[in-house]
What we know:
Blueprint: H1 2-9, E1 14-19, E2 28-34, E3 39-45, E4 54-61, E5 68-73, E6 81-86, E7 98-105, E8 118-125
Antiparallel strand pairs: 1-2, 1-8, 2-3, 3-6, 4-5, 4-7, 7-8
Amino acid sequence: SRDSVLEAFLGPMVHVVSLAPADDAKPSARVFWNHTRSVFIVTAFNIPQAPRGKTYQLWALRKGQAPLSMGTFNTDPSGRALAVVPVGRVGDAGFIDNCGLTLEPEGGSPQPTETPRLIGSWRHVD
């Protein structure tokens, strides 16, 4: 499992987005998009564990279009996460400007129910 995650970070077709609050507080997340393997690899630090009945949900934010769910994950008691999430229908969305993180009901929401807690812009890494 860990080897599979490490392999997903490698290759020329990987994009990454770092999500952080605007006030430079400690919580942060980084999402890697491996186009070749069609997965998102999510790493999170200092993000409080979701309350019972809630989950964190990632959103593809595209100018002039509704947010598109990228999947859900939860952190451990220390506020960390390492999750591999299938790309799903986001892969057909074309260019994605930003990525946001919200706290949603368990199982996720069809649209965000709050303003993103963390937000970041995509960039390509080699």
